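ARCHIVE CARD
SHELF: 3
SLOT: left
DATA:
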Amino acid sequence: QPSQLPLCNSPVSSLCVTLKCLPLYNGSVSSLNITLHWHPLYNGSVSSLNITLHWPPLYNSPVSSFCITLQSALCITAQWGAFVHEFSGSLCTTGVPNYRKIPYSENTRPGTVTSTFGLVKPEVNFIVTSQSNYTTSPVNNSYCRDVQDRLLTVSLKKRYSEDYYIQTVNDLQNCTWHKRPEERSKFRLDLSSCCNGVKNFIVSQNNTSVGINITYEVESKKRILITEEIYRMLPKSQPFDGTPFKQCAVVGNGGILANSGCGVEIDQSDFVFRCNLPPTSGNVSVDVGNKTNLVTVNPSIISQKYRKLNKVKNVFLKYVSNYGNSLLLLPAFSYSSNTAISFEVHRVLEKNQAKQKAVFFHPNYLKNLAKFWKGKGVRAYRLSTGLMITSAAMELCEEVILYGFWPFSKDLEGKPISHHYYDNMLPKPGFHAMPKEFYQVLQLHHKGVLRLQIGKCEKR
């Protein structure tokens, strides 16, 4: 809202502003809101304002609008192409109204708004370009409040289409993201009170002891006795020296990461979490980076791809060597069927003096975490690995950025994409509540608790 008071007793009063806005390229929403406080000089001989608005509506965009409000306007005329429309006080359009239906092209004459208070007409130019950059797109605060209101009124009892979520993300992309330390601290306190991931994220010698029985996370009627042998497998304490980390990246495996160019940005993080042994070497590193500090391991991958480590140990060891000095996190105590495979991974890594170390989710942490998210409306057979890791990162890190969190079959422009950046294998239907989880992530993004990176990363 640029404003300027004219000089007292000045014979000329004028305002000159250049405003560059960056609406989403091929986005579903493109809008511009301008409010000018224009005070013609009291008893001045000349006081004038001329606005030329260059507003290219986005091609194929269902909404492309501008809204101009002028205070102290005496007579205002708006011209779009060959059409003239008089208005008083403000002019707002949605798309190109019926009486201004002009095909967009580079040769289309821009709309002009002229308000004359005197003899001289200095200009105020508003230049709008169609180029995507969500972190710098200035949008009216009321617009972002509308987006927030829509997020707050979403019912998690209803099912929403992919298009609804994609539309919502496009809307959020128009609002500049700001981290909000007070919201971040509040959410972190709630998580800590419930789950205390700093002390209980991983089973360690300081949160369990020999001779106790641990109840499995999902199979609540089954228990496992912590023997001396199992106890020796456990780290002495939580293996996260230096916490809280300043900035963490939680890298999901969504197809949205393909061609994102986010690799450099991810690798600049202080701590990088990954899920389910994803590929990071070769051409994909440009998009997903190489750095890994912790990566989860689904025991089913060990069973299916590495035949429970029978006769293919070297293949497994060579693959995980790409993760450097990382922690391999396994759900050894979620299902009883996971235990032997998880212990075998630990044994193979230790016996072969691998740089990677196997650690295990604490089942009590995961059970408490499920209750925490259930209280927020996420009801599923089990939380996704991505949400588990994001939750832990929120306690272990000062700032959290999510990459590759995109459970949809289309990108922001509606183009089909694969489920993962490396394959198109879909999850079991109904096993995870992906849309509801994604909604929670959107909420946290909008509140400034974490940042959700969607689309291409900027070169820094």
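SLOT: right
DATA:
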Amino acid sequence: MPDKKYYGADAIVDSLVNHDVKYVFGIPGAKIDRVFERLEHPVNPKSPRLIVTRHEQNAAFIAAGIGRITGKPGVVMTTSGPGASNLATGLVTATAEGDPVLAISGQVQRADLLRLTHQSMNNAALFKPITKYSAEVQEPENISEVLANAYQEATAAKQGASFVSVPQDVTDSIVRTPVITPIQAPKLGPASPVEATLLAQKSKQLSCRSC
């Protein structure tokens, strides 16, 4: 019988769908396997295509290339420990060169975060200095909000990398909150001709009212 429960992993995939993500590059691992299973055997027909790479650093650079070509964040996904830390070179380069990237890594269960357990490390702190946004999801119901914030930050102002760490028990938890719609990122630079014309018209209208 198919599993009809809606898990954190489903919320991750549906959040990517909501942001029109077409590809996910990366390497699976125990702490994020449920998400990879959802990508490999999608329930949503609009799910991104999963492309498994030979190394996490390669996946990060490919995602950055997608970001540079399309102007939309390329997505890379890895497991915990070295799976996450191997992203560092690709993400720091993406941030320095203005390539939008969304990186998602697995993490040990929340109960093990402060213990010296296998692959337990502070992912969010590791990536904070080299990304525009770095956060760890602590509640399953907040998955889509954190991912939307990360995606928005990767595309806002000078583009760059965002990083989200997701503990294994968060991806494996039941989620009841619907995924949220994308957040529109503000853009720097001159207004388009259409926007400039509309602004001039509004300014003229306001000036006439004050006469």
